[in-house]
TrEMBL record:
<keyword id="KW-0479">Metal-binding</keyword>
<feature type="binding site">
    <location>
        <begin position="43"/>
        <end position="45"/>
    </location>
    <ligand>
        <name>GTP</name>
    </ligand>
</feature>
<comment type="pathway">
    <text>Purine metabolism; AMP biosynthesis via de novo pathway; AMP from IMP: step 1/2.</text>
</comment>
<feature type="binding site">
    <location>
        <begin position="410"/>
        <end position="412"/>
    </location>
    <ligand>
        <name>GTP</name>
    </ligand>
</feature>
<dbReference type="InterPro" id="IPR033128">
    <property type="entry name" value="Adenylosuccin_syn_Lys_AS"/>
</dbReference>
<dbReference type="InterPro" id="IPR042111">
    <property type="entry name" value="Adenylosuccinate_synth_dom3"/>
</dbReference>
<feature type="binding site">
    <location>
        <begin position="296"/>
        <end position="302"/>
    </location>
    <ligand>
        <name>substrate</name>
    </ligand>
</feature>
<dbReference type="InterPro" id="IPR018220">
    <property type="entry name" value="Adenylosuccin_syn_GTP-bd"/>
</dbReference>
<dbReference type="GO" id="GO:0044208">
    <property type="term" value="P:'de novo' AMP biosynthetic process"/>
</dbReference>
<feature type="binding site" description="in other chain">
    <location>
        <position position="300"/>
    </location>
    <ligand>
        <name>IMP</name>
    </ligand>
</feature>
<feature type="binding site">
    <location>
        <position position="302"/>
    </location>
    <ligand>
        <name>GTP</name>
    </ligand>
</feature>
<dbReference type="InterPro" id="IPR042109">
    <property type="entry name" value="Adenylosuccinate_synth_dom1"/>
</dbReference>
<feature type="binding site" description="in other chain">
    <location>
        <begin position="16"/>
        <end position="19"/>
    </location>
    <ligand>
        <name>IMP</name>
    </ligand>
</feature>
<dbReference type="InterPro" id="IPR027417">
    <property type="entry name" value="P-loop_NTPase"/>
</dbReference>
<feature type="binding site" description="in other chain">
    <location>
        <position position="221"/>
    </location>
    <ligand>
        <name>IMP</name>
    </ligand>
</feature>
<keyword id="KW-0460">Magnesium</keyword>
<keyword id="KW-0547">Nucleotide-binding</keyword>
Length: 425
């Protein structure tokens, strides 16, 4: 049993750190790649065989020869899933290796409609959701009126459940415009296509580990969007960090050997919420354009800030990070001075962890230290030693601040532009 290898890849800021690329890179050595949380609100951009792909639901490991698993912790929009399958098939990518948990909940049109209605009702207090029904689907899961994949692929049960839930929702939301008959007729056809892919993925993974397979767990979003530990209420509706792996993939903690935190060399976030190290003006525009900082799913411009060690330390603690993959170092090339946030000041006190209440976090002021930048082109380096001295110093200082070794770094979007300092498989 101890010959097994379970590696987790988690975004360790507010998402969009480059998880897709590292998952794709590590999946070359994995037998199975598993996604365990979220829905099609998350997106991964991957450069494969010279082409750029944007995935929303299917794990990034689909581009390698192994199997991929969509775990029970996910909420899956069947229509969006099949659109993504077609998108990949049209590009020549085989999707027959997908295994979907029979316990994963599905997203239906009424979830999307309710998402839009509730965001509108919130007015100035809107959370800034992607509008894809993720939150309402998770609400149904915990309200015990959700529809799981195992029910969805059983036509009789699906018909009964969808009519019952729609009738209940219309009592709660009188303006909800959803026809249960039409919904059932459309979605039962999707269920027929998906049925061969559905199984007990927890048992499947247990067998894989017993056979000493190498399994890679792929997070979605970032740990600062965690429903419990993130910048609540401006968070997602699940546990995207390593703390969500066991419940979201139906496996136990002893299966996990390494947890790799994906971290940008700076910081970004999408949507509303506190962002202590945020940069405004020309500098933000420069980094945003050079780093192509626009949402994979929403295309919204990402907010940009300096590296925040308080955020990454929070992620290290909650995810038990064993190593960090530092992404987009090349974006900082040419900046004369770089800033690193080492702590926050709150009411005259220096603190090194995020306050639980968003009102307190909004009052935090970052404590910065400055380091000299570098002008040399680093996109072609193949080792740490080839980096400019100032870039090496920047990496080493981040390691000191977050108390975790940097085991990989990236100097460009291609697989070949990932430099590994320590193997995890």
């Amino acid at each position: 049993m101890k010959n097994m290898a379970g590696v987790v890849v988690v975004g360790s800021q507010w998402g969009d750190e480059g998880k897709g690329k590292i998952t794709d890179y590590l999946s070359q050595k994995a037998d199975i790649v598993v996604r365990y949380s979220g829905g099609n609100n998350a997106g991964h951009t991957i450069v494969y065989d010279g082409k750029k792909f944007a995935l929303r639901l299917i794990p990034s490991g689909i581009f390698t020869g192994g199997d991929v698993v969509m775990g029970n912790g996910m909420v899956i929009n069947p229509k969006a899933f099949l659109e993504e399958v077609k998108y990949l098939n049209d590009a020549g990518i085989n999707t027959d290796r997908i295994h979907i948990s029979d316990r994963a909940h599905i997203i239906l049109p009424y979830h999307i409609a309710i998402d839009a209605m509730e965001e509108s009702l919130r007015g100035d207090a809107a959370i800034g959701t992607t509008g894809r029904g993720i939150g309402p689907a998770y609400v149904d899961k915990y309200d015990r009126c959700g529809i799981r994949m195992g029910d969805f692929i059983n036509e009789e049960r699906f018909n009964k459940k969808v009519h019952s839930v729609v009738a209940f929702k219309k009592k709660l939301y009188p303006d909800l415009d959803v026809d249960a008959d039409a919904l059932f007729e459309e979605y039962k056809e999707y269920a027929k296509i998906m049925k061969p892919l559905v199984c007990d993925t927890g048992a499947y993974l247990d067998d894989a580990f017993r056979d000493n397979k190498k399994v890679l767990f792929e997070g979605a979003q970032g740990t600062m969007l965690d429903i419990d530990y993130g910048t609540y209420p401006y968070v997602t509706s699940s546990n995207p960090g390593a703390n969500g792996v066991c419940s979201g993939a139906s496996i136990g903690p002893l299966y996990l050997d390494e947890v790799v935190g994906i971290v940008k060399a700076y910081t970004t976030r999408v949507g509303a919420g506190a962002f202590p190290t945020e940069i405004e003006g020309e500098m933000a525009d420069h980094i945003r354009e050079k780093g192509h900082e626009y949402g994979t799913v929403t295309k919204r411009p990402r907010r940009v800030g300096w590296f925040d060690s308080v955020v990454v330390n929070q992620s290290r603690r909650m995810a038990s990070l064993t190593g960090i993959s530092l992404m987009l170092l090349d974006v900082l090339t040419g900046l004369p001075t770089l800033k690193l946030c080492t702590a926050y000041m709150l009411d005259g006190e220096e603190i090194h962890s995020l306050p639980a209440c968003i009102e307190d976090l909004e009052r935090c002021e970052p404590v910065f230290e400055e380091m000299p930048g570098w002008d040399e082109d680093i996109t072609g380096v193949t080792s740490f030693e080839e980096l400019p001295v100032n870039c090496q110093n920047y990496i080493r200082r981040i390691e000191e601040l977050v108390h975790c070794p940097i085991t990989m770094f990236s100097v460009g979007p291609d697989r070949k532009q990932t430099i590994v300092l320590k193997e995890v498989f």
